[in-house]
Design goal:
The complex is a heterodimer of chains A (545) and B (308).
Chain A lengths: L1 H18 L13 E6 L4 E6 L14 H10 L4 E3 L5 E3 L2 E6 L5 E6 L13 H12 L17 H5 L10 E5 L2 E5 L7 H4 L10 H7 L15 E7 L3 E6 L13 E6 L2 H9 L14 H8 L3 E14 L10 H9 L3 H8 L5 E2 L22 H14 L9 E7 L5 H15 L2 E7 L1 H9 L5 E3 L2 E2 L6 H4 L16 H12 L3 H18 L2 E12 L4 E2 L15 E6 L2
Parallel strand pairs in A: 2-11, 14-15, 14-16
Antiparallel strand pairs in A: 1-20, 3-4, 5-6, 6-8, 7-8, 9-10, 10-11, 12-16, 12-17, 12-18, 13-18, 19-20
Chain B lengths: L1 H28 L13 H10 L6 H13 L14 H36 L4 H15 L2 H15 L13 H31 L2 H8 L4 H29 L3 H7 L4 H10 L3 H29 L8
Helix pairs in contact in B: 1-12, 4-5, 4-7, 4-9, 4-12, 5-7, 6-7, 6-10, 7-9, 8-9, 9-12, 10-11, 11-12
Chain lengths: 545, 308
């Protein structure tokens, strides 16, 4: 009999899949009843987009590795349940009036998983290791705000010249090149977390293997199978272990679609993502288990300023900017997952977004102005703008770029051809400034406007459009030297207005974090950096999966 | 026979060399390197990474170094997974594909063989039309549809089986991926066996066997089976090599830690050693299985004589 049921089920599924591409007629997965008490089994089943390339905090470069090390290590500061920066190994700190000298006081009860105390020297060791060219840390420049860091990373200065020292085992002093309000956020990042020197020196590269593993965070690595799983166990030596409820966290590195099926079968409780094209269907199946929130990232197109057709033609750049119907892209194509972007910087606390005036115009007025600019730029129905829009393969963005091309065709008569290239191929073209119009999306490294602004700074490596404006660069320099946080933000606001006027960037949408979460998994909040640590999470009693 | 084997093995060496060389050259010719990212690193750091992986040496020296290591059975360090060797990745990933792949092909041979033979015996009957209809479906519906469908029904709706994962090859975790992988092969083999069987059944030696009054069972098993298997064997050689090096789709749908997924992410991330290593392994398997298939011909068809 079960086989009959199975055959019927399969047939129903096939029919549903054929007749209705979104599969909305499928029966919903069995419902879940959630209790109020803690479940006996406090194992968290989480997913990652891909297998981390390494779990060494100095060497990791991918978001997936960072998510895991957020559970494994704790910096001077760390992440709160809402993603805000809270004291970590440092219990307090002072900053000098010019904003350049910081002193951190460490908590005496911080321990490594092998029982050794966490000392100031462990931080100095980790930071020196990060900037030491011999380590080969790809993100060594993240420490650039610290005095001497760049000179060491470029091989021009000895390790000892780093502006950080440990006057005693419980004190860390940091000297900065300029006031850096986001230092506290940097300190929570993987490349500034402390490292177990003795273990690393004893085992070399092998220190990240589970059998040698030592870390100072809420969890330690128990098992690592490439392409299959990373299992973490609670670290009993962690100073706040009494408040950590998960006994195990298993991370499964599986593809986006596989995450959905595993989640629906109850084999994953917290997905790292879901395909945005399935948003409506997932909502219909899973209701409020589908969660979406703002993410510190901008999906934008950038034009090449070094040659035709966009260099020296501001009217054309603005015409493309104005002719884009971002509310349709966000509301219809992305079904409301993402928010429309009219300027570069995503919503950030303490920063006033500089939305250009035309963002609030009616569609007719905006389109008319776009057409006027297009004509003023020297283009017409007889002389159409014809360019290729380059974007990387792999992200489900085809629909967005097709829609954008259609908008420019309808609203201006321009012929823009979306063209996807493998990421590394595109990157090479961008570095050679071959691409004329391209996706240059950016995820902020820390919650501060500068991480986005630098994309248009003269001489910055990822300034692929070759934009160079003395006024803009001057504003960034003024912001960098400004100790008053509010005035610093004002300089950034002026700089963003400058970008808007120049139309060098075509912001499209702000990114969104998107997860599938079982209703019985609690103790988490969405946050703009999408760093949701397992430390605060717990599992409630439940029936059904 | 031995001369045949020896001759084939001798040819295998230059073939492997060509495979390794081509894979090495093509991969290094692809734009972008293993440590390219959106962020640009200072030259001192870049140099230190390149020195670690010998990427700072001229290409011909890297090639000779690679061949030398290869001759010693060392496929080198993986570029994308730090502190992990390609040998290690293949050692952990290959058993996954070997188990799933051989179970799937064994199932496909058994089921496909029986269905195909029955269909040929009952030509133009319901026993022929219905299975062949499903066989066409099985061939034409891709694995990335059947895999998720199986998960939807058996894991999501019925909760009978897990939706994926490996767990050291526990039988519960094997059922769905093996079924999904076996379906198209079963269908293909069924159609192939049917075609071959129809041809064999109408050939004079079978007519003679029937004329002698032998029962169908004996005619099929003793006289028809071996010639029917000839096209199947030539299909199975490369098929085995292919499933053993991993079905990328099956692995990603079920989240299995097999070398197919390593290969795919390796290609995207320009993990030179991993991709060349798996290509070389694939080449070696194809050569071995083709050789095995050729040996089988000699057993299956008395007209074939193995000579080098």
């Amino acid at each position: 009999m079960p086989w009959v049921a199975a055959a019927v089920g399969l047939a129903a599924a096939v029919l549903a899949a054929c007749g209705d591409p979104k599969g909305t007629s499928l029966p919903a997965a069995p419902s879940i009843t959630v209790g109020t008490r803690l479940a006996a089994d406090q194992t968290l089943l989480r997913a990652l987009d891909a297998m981390p390339r390494t779990l060494d905090p100095s060497l990791l470069t991918d978001v997936d590795a960072q998510k895991v090390t957020d559970d494994l290590f704790e910096g001077l500061t760390t992440l709160g349940i809402d993603g805000a920066i809270v004291p970590g190994v440092a219990k307090s700190w002072q900053v000098s009036t010019d904003g350049k000298e910081w002193v951190f006081h460490l908590r005496p009860d911080a321990r490594w998983s092998n029982g050794e105390p966490v000392t100031a020297a462990d931080f100095i060791y980790a930071w020196q290791r990060e900037v030491d060219p011999k380590t080969g840390a790809e993100y060594a420049q993240a420490l650039a705000p610290i005095v001497g860091a760049l000179d060491i990373a470029t091989g021009h200065a000895p390790l000892s010249s780093l502006g950080a020292d440990a006057p005693d085992p419980l004190t860390v002093r940091v000297a900065l090149n300029s006031p850096t309000p986001y230092l506290l956020a940097l300190l929570a990042d993987s490349y500034m977390q402390p490292l177990p020197r003795a273990t690393i020196e004893r085992w070399g590269d092998d220190w990240t293997r589970p059998e040698h593993w030592v870390s100072n965070g809420p969890f330690v690595v128990k098992e690592e199978v490439i392409g299959d799983r990373i299992t973490l166990a609670k670290n009993p030596s962690y100073w706040d272990a009494a408040n950590v409820r998960p006994t195990r966290v298993i991370y499964f590195p599986v593809e986006t679609l596989t995450q959905v099926s595993r989640f629906m079968a109850g084999d994953i409780q917290f997905s790292s993502i879901f395909p945005s094209s399935q948003f409506k269907w997932l909502r219909s199946q899973l209701g409020n288990q589908v969660v979406v929130g703002p993410y510190l990232g901008i999906q934008q197109l950038v034009v090449n300023m070094l040659g035709p057709p966009f260099g020296m033609n501001r009217d054309l750049r603005l015409a493309l900017n104005l002719a884009l119907d971002r509310r349709i892209l966000a509301g219809k194509v992305r079904e409301g997952i993402q928010e429309p972007a009219f300027s570069l910087i995503p919503p950030l606390e303490g920063y006033q977004q500089q939305v250009p005036p035309w963002a609030t115009w009616s569609d007719e007025r905006r389109h008319a102005e776009a057409r006027r600019l297009y004509a003023a730029a020297g283009y017409s129905a007889a002389h159409k703008l014809r360019v290729q829009l380059d974007y990387p393969t792999g992200e489900d963005n085809r629909d967005v770029y097709d829609a954008i091309a259609a908008m420019w065709r309808t609203n201006l008569g321009a012929e823009v051809e979306p063209y996807n290239e493998e990421f590394r191929v595109l990157l090479q073209n961008l570095r050679l400034h071959k691409a004329v119009l391209f996706q240059n999306s950016w995820i902020g490294d820390y919650p501060d406007p500068f991480t986005f602004m630098q994309l248009f700074q003269t001489g910055f490596d990822q300034n692929f459009g070759g934009y160079s404006d003395p006024t803009f660069d001057g504003l960034l320099a003024q912001a960098a030297a400004e100790p008053d946080p509010a005035r610093r933000m004002e300089f950034f606001e002026q700089a963003e207005r400058r970008l808007n006027e120049d139309g060098v960037s075509i912001p499209v949408m702000y990114y969104a974090s998107r997860h599938l979460v079982k209703p019985y998994v609690k103790g988490w909040q969405l946050n703009i950096q999408d760093r949701i640590v397992s430390k605060y999470m717990y599992v409630l009693e439940h029936e059904g999966r | 026979m031995l001369r045949f084997l020896g001759g084939r093995l001798l040819i295998a060496i230059p073939t492997m060399l060509v495979i390794a060389t081509l894979a090495f050259a093509l991969l290094h010719a692809t734009p972008g390197g293993p440590f390219d990212s959106a962020k640009v690193m200072p030259p001192a750091i870049q140099h230190s990474i390149e020195a670690k992986y010998h990427l700072d040496e001229p290409l011909w020296r890297q090639y000779l170094r690679y061949l030398n290591d290869l001759a010693h059975g060392d496929l080198g360090p993986s570029f994308q997974y730090r502190n992990t060797s390609v040998n290690e990745l293949i050692r952990t990933g290959f058993p996954v594909d070997a188990v799933v792949g051989s179970l799937a092909l064994a199932t496909a041979m058994l089921v496909g063989g029986i269905v195909g033979t029955v269909a040929a015996l009952r030509r133009n009957d319901w026993w022929d039309h219905v299975p062949m209809f499903f066989a066409v479906l099985g061939i034409s519906i891709p694995v990335f549809v059947t895999g998720p469908l199986l998960i939807l029904v058996f894991a999501v709706q019925l909760h009978w089986l897990p939706s994926g994962d490996w767990r050291g090859g526990e039988i519960r975790y094997l059922l769905l991926p093996v079924t999904a992988l076996a379906l198209p092969y079963t269908a293909y083999i069924a159609r192939m066996v049917r075609g071959a069987a129809i041809e064999v059944f109408t050939s004079p030696f079978i007519r003679t066997a029937r004329a002698k009054g032998l029962p169908t069972r004996v005619v099929v098993l003793r006289h028809a089976l071996r010639p029917v298997l000839i096209p199947v064997v030539s299909f199975l050689g490369p098929a085995f090599a292919s499933v053993l090096t991993g079905s990328i789709i099956i692995e990603s749908v079920f989240g299995l830690p097999g070398i197919g997924r390593y290969f795919l992410t390796g290609a995207i991330n320009r993990d030179y050693t991993l991709v060349v290593g798996i290509t070389v392994l694939y080449g070696a398997l194809i050569i071995s299985f083709n050789l095995l298939a050729d040996l089988c011909y000699g057993w299956l068809d008395p007209r074939v004589r193995l000579q080098s």
